[in-house]
Amino acid sequence: MVQADDRGDVFAGLGVHNLSDIGRAGHYFVQASLAVGHFDQCGHRAMRDNGTRGRTSLGGGLHINQGRRISLTLDHILDMDFKNYDPGSETLHLRYTVGF
Predict the structure, then answer these.
(1) 87 Cβ contact partners less than 8 Å away, ≥ 6 residues apart
(2) Cα angle 44-10-88, degrees, rounded to a multiple of 5
(3) CA dist., res. 92 & res. 76, Å (int)
(4) Distance between CA atoms of 99 and 5, rounded to whole angstroms?
(5) Following DSSP, what letter does each residue of the chain receive, concatenated?
(6) pTM of this prediction?
(7) Residue 27: how many other CB atoms lie within 10 Å
(8) Are 36 and 56 in contact (CB under 8 A)?
């Protein structure tokens, strides 16, 4: 997965993702993920904040129809020592997903 913002920050990593249906009819779902990758702040290679980071994500949503869903997730990028001395990056995503 690759995530970028309008300031030029980029995170690229690999991880695991889980999506679980909830409710009797299974119309709703919760999702969570954890990834490890490289964070590059604003394209400046010498910045102190660049390097290996962890990324977590938690959200929920609605199955619209077969293969299509909409969700709202909160992502957080944090230091690899999990102490979060340097403030991480929080991103709120509204996602529309189409399976293929």
Answers:
(1) none
(2) 90
(3) 9
(4) 24
(5) -EEE-TTS-EEEEEEEEEEEEESSS--EEEEEEEEEEEEESTT-TT-TT-EEEEEEEEEEEEEEETTEEEEEEEEEEEETTS---S--EEEEEEEEEE--
(6) 0.74
(7) 13
(8) no
Partner residues linked to 65 by β-bridges: 68
Band the pLDDT of 61: cuts 50, 70, 90.
Answer: very high
Structure tokens belonging to residue 39: 């964070």
- The answer to whether residue 69 scores a pLDDT higher than 90 is yes
Q: What is the count of structural domains for the chain? A: 1
Can you tell me the distance from the alpha carbon of 34 to that of 2, in angstroms, rounded to the nearest whole number? 13
Name the residue range of residue 44's domain. 2-98
Going 60 to 65 to 66 to 68, the CA torsion angle's sign is: negative
Contact status, residue 92 vs residue 57, Cβ threshold 8 Å: no
Q: Please give the Cα distance from 50 to 47 (Å, whole number).
A: 6
| Residue 74's pLDDT band (cuts 50, 70, 90) | very high
